[in-house]
Amino acid sequence: MDYTKYLAGRANWIKGSALADVMKKASELQKKGVKLISLAAGDPDPELIPRAVLGEIAKEVLEKEPKSVMYTPANGIPELREELAAFLKKYDHLEVSPENIVITIGGTGALDLLGRVLIDPGDVVITENPSYINTLLAFEQLGAKIEGVPVDNDGMRVDLLEEKIKELKAKGQKVKLIYTIPTGQNPMGVTMSMERRKALLEIASKYDLLIIEDTAYNFMRYEGGDIVPLKALDNEGRVIVAGTLSKVLGTGFRIGWIIAEGEILKKVLMQKQPIDFCAPAISQYIALEYLKRGYFEKYHLEGALLGYKEKRDIMLKALENHLPNAEFTKPIAGMFVMFFLPEGADGISFANELMEREGVVVVPGKPFYTDESGKNAIRLNFSRPSKEEIPIGIKKLAKLYKEKFGE
Amino acid sequence: MDYTKYLAGRANWIKGSALADVMKKASELQKKGVKLISLAAGDPDPELIPRAVLGEIAKEVLEKEPKSVMYTPANGIPELREELAAFLKKYDHLEVSPENIVITIGGTGALDLLGRVLIDPGDVVITENPSYINTLLAFEQLGAKIEGVPVDNDGMRVDLLEEKIKELKAKGQKVKLIYTIPTGQNPMGVTMSMERRKALLEIASKYDLLIIEDTAYNFMRYEGGDIVPLKALDNEGRVIVAGTLSKVLGTGFRIGWIIAEGEILKKVLMQKQPIDFCAPAISQYIALEYLKRGYFEKYHLEGALLGYKEKRDIMLKALENHLPNAEFTKPIAGMFVMFFLPEGADGISFANELMEREGVVVVPGKPFYTDESGKNAIRLNFSRPSKEEIPIGIKKLAKLYKEKFGE
């Protein structure tokens, strides 16, 4: 039966992820028994997450708390929203009322809910170029047109943002929204400077735009002192936060949140129950107990985070040793290093060759870009591979690099 | 700050649930310390769910399986899809390949994903009248126009369906889709007869329509022998299934599924990762172990289900005793009885008075209706209240009923 005629018009806006090919090939090789080193992941290390502790909590809450197997309120269990408000105050400079927090299906679910309330087909969303591929795809599914602003080591080139807005407005396009990951950006690994954060807020105010701040990596900071989220600098209510515990508890629990107010909060709340009912109760109770018992401090800040920092150091050192002249970012937060082949080189074919010849999986940068640039970029992840795998992977990458492009 | 101007046009289609008022009032009374008996729930009994067993599984998988804290494939972990295919074959007459199953955020998430792929603004969706309120709201958020077909004790009045389709087509409306809950319908509690199931499929074929079959209550069957889902009778591939383990494991795990094929499956898959990434890994592993270990038979068929049947019997007996002349449905599946006040009476004000005066919470039926009928309907739930609460609740309902309307 041909189902094409039944599809909604908006199904045309659904695009596949260009990363799927790489991942499919990797999985086929693994099925054949080929041993691969993966620098391609997008999540934290399950060996650094206190899984046994979470298991104990899960057992306890499932046994003792009937609500742990039931629907929760659509915006999340009140105790978790309260605990989260206290957590965000203590660890992320945010003074938020629990009433303004909506617990979502991970950060992904938060972004989709916001997109559905805010984006009309044809609306322009300005993002960093490159930006997180799933957000680009989710917003495109809603009919958004994505326009990117280049990124350097200090984050979005806010100096180019105003030009971009003017240019779009001159063309009669409707710009409503800026989406940014200021801290530990995916895929660049860079963190926006304080100066640019302030400038970004000023421009948003001048042009009356909303900002969606994706704080996914705010709890994966290794240095740079206290980094203040845009939301904490926002006096006008222009910043809506999409946050997540995925990088702390693990991505599989699907616990994220929206911080919003007014009509946006109201519409998000009304919209939510009919489309996902609530975030998983068991995950919400695990998150609640984890935060309440002070495990963020004990197992994350004094545990996992040190492990990620060590792995980042190992990756950067290996890159510096083997490829002292190559260009790559030096993250102070997050879990990615963006590595650049020489200008004009093709990251996709390099990634394929690296996997086939050397057994090292990396993610080409191109699909994260909003235009044709970034062809030579390769995203490297340091949170998931082991400390032993990272230098081997980088050495093999360097070998292929030198063979193709010289020192 | 006034956020109204930033809202997308589609935000106008987001409506609040008319049930929210009742629930809010109930929660306010409870906060004041008023003890209420609730016949208003929409989920199974957490005391009949083997929570300690699920807790043991959770502890085990979190400790031993690193993948239990990580992203899963967007369509779900392969082992669960395989186990589910075997489960559906054994307990629901379905021969489905694991490749055609997509694990979703509960049945709610399944319905929203399908709506997003299939419904264009202005498209007509035909449903039972009344039907599940969250589906009505979710589809309306996508711009659907809902048209209802009346329901009697044998389910959707399929004899009226064809007229309805002709009438809509004559008005130039685009009918694409029928949404039905054939077994243990919410809110009516009725089950579609085999004869009507066949007739429904014939009409869908004649008018080239798709059917979304919501199988939420297929594992809450108390009598009526083997009830065969539409999907198992479907030779043309017209039926898409939205299923869930919510009524077995508990609603809080958020494990549902879509069964689809061809372009619809392809678009659902492409769409899914950017908008929710995956169903919760921990819930997927709990579901996997629950099914694999034969716990469905042990704890559900030979456990919880007997409890729900007993509670159903208690509710029906109490209604028959106290209100022998009143009209109400007699469910052979699901968890609801629809109770009707005399023609012309107002269910919403009756529900309010019942809560305030007698401390019994029920859900007015009106919000489930697609038109102005059903003003006198009251939805009663028997799965959640205890065996002791049900006869007390019904007795109090009967007292108010008699006071207002006589015997």
Features of the shown structure:
Aspartate Aminotransferase, domain 1; homodimer; 4-stranded antiparallel sheet; Aspartate Aminotransferase, domain 2; 407 residues; 2 domains; 14 helices; 8-stranded mixed sheet; 44% helix; 14 strands; 15% strand; alpha/beta
Write structural notes for this entry.
- The structure is a homodimer of 407-residue chains.
- With 407 residues, chain A is an alpha/beta fold.
- The first copy, chain A, has helices spanning 20-31, 51-64, 78-92, 106-118, 133-141, 158-170, 194-206, 230-233, 246-249, 262-276, 281-292, 295-322, 347-358, 389-405, and strands at residues 37-38, 101-105, 124-129, 145-152, 155-156, 175-180, 210-214, 239-244, 255-259, 327-328, 336-340, 360-361, 363-364, 377-381.
- Chain A is globular and about 55 Å long.
- At the A-B interface, helix 2, helix 4, helix 5, helix 10 and helix 11 of A face helix 2, helix 4, helix 5, helix 10 and helix 11 of B.
- Chains A, B: This is Alanine glyoxylate transaminase.
